[in-house]
Description:
By secondary structure, chain A is α/β, with parallel strands linked by helices. Chain A is 41% helix and 13% strand.
Amino acid sequence: MRIEDLVLPKVKELPPSGIRKYFDLINEMDDAISLGVGEPDYTTPWNICEAGIYSLEKGHTHYSSNAGFIRLREEIARYVQSKYHLSYDAATQVLVTVGGSEGIDLALRSLAGPGDEVIIPEPCFVAYQGCARIAGATPVSIRLRAEDQFKLTPELLERALTPRTKVVILPFPNNPTGAIMTKEELEPLVQILKDKPLIVLSDEIYAELTYEGRHVSIASFPEMKDKTVVINGFSKAFAMTGWRLGYACGHPDIIKAMVKIHQYAIMCAPTTAQYAAIEALRTGEAAVTEMRLEYNRRRRVLLDGFRKLGLDCFEPLGAFYVFPSIQSTGLSSEEFCEQLLIKEKVLVVPGTAFGECGEGFVRACYASSLEQISEALRRIKKFLHLPLGH
Amino acid sequence: MMDEILEILEKNCRYSEEQIAVMTGKSVQEVHETIAKYEKDNVIAGYKALINWSKVGDENITALIEVKVTPQRGEGFDKVAERIYRFPEVNACYLMSGSFDLCVIIEGSSMKEVAYFVAEKLAPLESVQSTATHFVLKKYKDKGTVFDDKPKDDREAVFI
């Protein structure tokens, strides 16, 4: 008997991380610059950390209720109401999760199983594919296009829908492209989706990192409210990645189902993080605004830099990624990233790590200091002037 | 609302006009003119490096002196303050509410030098009623910057 044979085929078949090899390489380099990591470089604002520390000092070290402290859920309900005009009942429509990722997993496991199709617009965060497969559902990719600025168009959506479609994932603001969807762009999607027997899983984890206008949630359309599960969290907006705290909001029947899986698998999200999150929602706004302003400056610098280097790039208006085309170099995404890392010690991530249609693009994250970004651009410039071999 | 250009320069005044133009989405010309006007109007009063002198073995001493003064007729505290802040040793001088009037921050190369300044220059001034000198033992944070070794980027290689 081989132990490996005991592992379920659907798990064995999940692809390993496409960029492990780059991370292994960069770990051995001294003065490498990574624009590869998708998390804020800021540490959590001190008042939020302090609230977590204080909760420990007071001995608040026990479980919370499965769905999370009601005080936190009330704060979340108040927050999404004031930010995105979403009205949810804290007791029955809000679930506190271990990061946004757990919310994605819970929603997919609650909603999609064998025979069901999950529509996933790519390029996108890798977890949707994986979670859909683990749930036993069939992922159906939509190849978003650079000429549409990587937005989901009604035509592309319509083409992917079938009677078996159970969940449509809406990942905006988008990782890795930085694309956003405005209210006007969501409108025609709503017309297509509103009467279909399916649920939209709207991953809005980057909502607060929107640089023009305000983020609009598809759940704010009245006809979509009950048909949407909104995923959000504290990692990106409040620079709280390591605290592992997110939340899901939706129809009581779906949240009830998600709480069931959550209570068996997780019990409850870490309580220290929940105390910190209450503070974040109450007083964190100024810090979020300050970080967003700074990200916006970095965004402009990196975008301007790529364009000056002759790399085509649409203007990303959300998240903290720029997604330039590297087709003019004649290299594949993987070749570009590997050679750039080896020759100039700068890490960007190949677009293909986020779906096949990411070929010809790379993802550069601007959650790094302006000095690091400027130095990375200087090195990429040097790299582009070297003779490029395959 | 505070001008973004001032906000950027206050954080780091070494950015070029070109860089600031890209960061703010303004033209280089506009940034150039704005900064020139701020300089002319003394809104930008200077550009200085924030130096952690203790790292280069500098033994300079900083003291905070509480000064009680008698305000002068017609000129209040301003004239007295000026008599004091004109001394080059004085780094900062603030008019305070509370139990004393002027907060004077001075720097000297030794405790003796600071003591000399207080005893010979400050205390004998006619309007000065009393002084209380507090020496700084260690600077943890100055002008918003923590004087510790630079924080390392400890983000691990996680694929997200």
